[in-house]
Amino acid sequence: MTQRKPEWLKINLVSGPELATFKELKQTMRSQTLHTVCEEAKCPNIHECWANRTATFMILGDICTRACRFCAVKTGLPTELDLAEPERVAEAAEQMGLNYVVVTSVARDDLADGGAQIFAETIRAIRRRLPLASVEVLIPDFLGNWDSLKTVMDARPDVLNHNIETVRRMSDRVRARAKYDRTLALLKKAKELQPDIPTKSSLMIGVGETVEEIIETMDDLRSVDVNIMTIGQYLQPTKKHLKVEHYYHPDEFARLKEEGMKRGFSHVEAGPLVRSSYHAHEQADAAKEGIAQAQ
């Protein structure tokens, strides 16, 4: 039986000047033939974020080599690699006047480096055009290729994000090819390569996990010194995807945030509509301050 969405999951659309900004950003994306995870993953915050001139660029095309059971991004075998994409992303970010740029990608298991070089070139291209902007990258696991991870870390993003997505027990059912322990190993390795760069991971809940398992996941992330955690409600994008097992109340999210902060995260963003890049700038500022205080 499909559960009815509760009232607190109502999405507010924008109007007036905010709607004009939303349309402007959409036109910029289309003029540069770029993709955004905001659109491809059907993010519920797209109107709010775009109205505030925040968008998450999705590089390496729009076809993912994995078919995770929670994700709305198209899956299949990509046919090309666009070497000019990094410069177009940077140009779009400059046109939009961004001071915080988030870059993610589809999984490209067909590439030897998983697309790491394109990630690094995108970071550097943005920095050339927007030297004062911060750049956060949300990367795939590169199938555990630490040379690929080093390629990205050597470009020195301001935040390195890799999502754990779900609790250990649910991982193989929810994610395709990704492994819970590989995610932890990647986040640990990132900190070893560049200790001063904040790391971040995201958990979506409502797919059948228990609160105790959520707490265990927090502890696992803190064991590899992850600085930022985001927790949001899973929403079923289509009928072929995983069903929602439970809708968490905002009060439950507030308690989870408290639990996370007790465990030493610099910042925990938790709420029904929270996604990995939601309020990313504020998350990064809190993490950098926490790292500076710890040193």
TrEMBL record:
Reactions listed under catalytic activity: [[Fe-S] cluster scaffold protein carrying a second [4Fe-4S](2+) cluster] + N(6)-octanoyl-L-lysyl-[protein] + 2 oxidized [2Fe-2S]-[ferredoxin] + 2 S-adenosyl-L-methionine + 4 H(+) = [[Fe-S] cluster scaffold protein] + N(6)-[(R)-dihydrolipoyl]-L-lysyl-[protein] + 4 Fe(3+) + 2 hydrogen sulfide + 2 5'-deoxyadenosine + 2 L-methionine + 2 reduced [2Fe-2S]-[ferredoxin]
Primary location group: cytoplasm
Name of the protein this chain belongs to: Lipoyl synthase
Positions annotated to bind [4Fe-4S] cluster 2: 64, 68, 71
Domain (Radical SAM core): residue spans on this chain: 50-266
Signal peptide: none
GO terms for MF: 4 iron, 4 sulfur cluster binding; lipoate synthase activity; metal ion binding
Cofactor(s) needed: [4Fe-4S] cluster
PROSITE patterns linked to this entry: RADICAL_SAM (PS51918)
Entry's family note: Belongs to the radical SAM superfamily. Lipoyl synthase family.
